[in-house]
Amino acid sequence: MAQIDDLPPLRDVIRRHGLDARKSLGQNFLLDLNLTARIARASGRLEGITVIEVGPGPGGLTRGLLAEGVAKVIAIEKDRRCRPALEEIAAAYPGRLEIIEDDALTVDATHLTDGPARIVANLPYNVATPLLSGWLEGPWPPFWDSLTLMFQKEVAERIVAHAGDKAYGRLAVLVGWRTHAEIVLELPPQAFTPYPKVSSAVVQLLPRAESLACDMKTLERVTAAAFGQRRKMLRAALKSLGGETSALIEKAGLKPTARAEEIPVEGFVALANAFDVAKAATSNAS
């Protein structure tokens, strides 16, 4: 296995610093530095780019990013045990690695850089979906120009699914509302230490030039109702929203006999907007 830099192999780093992967932190370490370099390259051209990385652990992906020419990596790591290993990387790449010891769920990443950034991360499985949802919120275009993220393969398939696919659901609608997503790399359990029970996949998400006009909270509410009873027709599944369901569906230009899995992202956006209009009309009338 070829080395990508002059630092010690990750197995030695983990052993020397006592970095056993902890299930409570969703940790599974990727030790093959050739694979971490492939993940880095999957995010696109890296020279001169600022990258935000979440959950670097002992720094395998961090080293891959820096070796590929990233101008700066801002690494957010909750596990303080990993700091000494990351500081060794920082010393080997002077001025190019900033370490933030904090919980990524509470860090406002929009203020970490002066210009556009790229987010590249082998996300801890237990916080992957909440982190993704957070990066999809807020003003558009976003502070990032792409997301290249590793998930459990099943979650990745849900992220990139389209209407009619078995994996299509609320997450695919939320992602499709603001981005174009595709799986760019798959990894078997054996690539990690310890082995997870499932395969993993790297997903790249590119922001839509213009996101579809819609309130995110309303879109979440409408999709929760629709997919909460996904085998039912829309006219029945949406009753939990209250009001005149048939009129709502008609205003969105959809068929009341359609099921959630058949409705494309644009249809759910139209449904969410119709729901907001109806809610506002009801409020004004009262």
Tally the helices. 11
Oligomer: single chain
What's the CATH class label of the largest domain?
A: Alpha Beta
What's the CATH topology name of the largest domain?
Rossmann fold
The main β sheet shows up as:
7 strands, mixed
Radius of gyration over C-alpha positions, nearest whole angstrom = 21 Å
Query: Roughly what is the average pLDDT, rounded to an integer?
Result: 92
Tell me the overall shape.
elongated
Structural class: alpha/beta
CATH architecture title of the largest domain:
3-Layer(aba) Sandwich
Residue ranges: pLDDT <50 for 5 or more in a row?
A: none
**Beta-strand share of residues:** 15-25%
Written overview of the protein:
With 286 residues, the chain is an alpha/beta fold. The chain folds into 2 domains: 10-207, Rossmann fold (3-Layer(aba) Sandwich), CATH 3.40.50.150; 216-285, rRNA adenine dimethylase, C-terminal domain (Helicase, Ruva Protein, domain 3, Orthogonal Bundle). Helix content is 37%, strand content 17%. It has 11 helices and 9 strands. The strands form 2 sheets. A 7-stranded mixed β-sheet has the order 4-3-2-5-6-9-7. The longest helix is centred in the last third of the chain and has 21 residues, at 265-285. The relative contact order is 0.11.
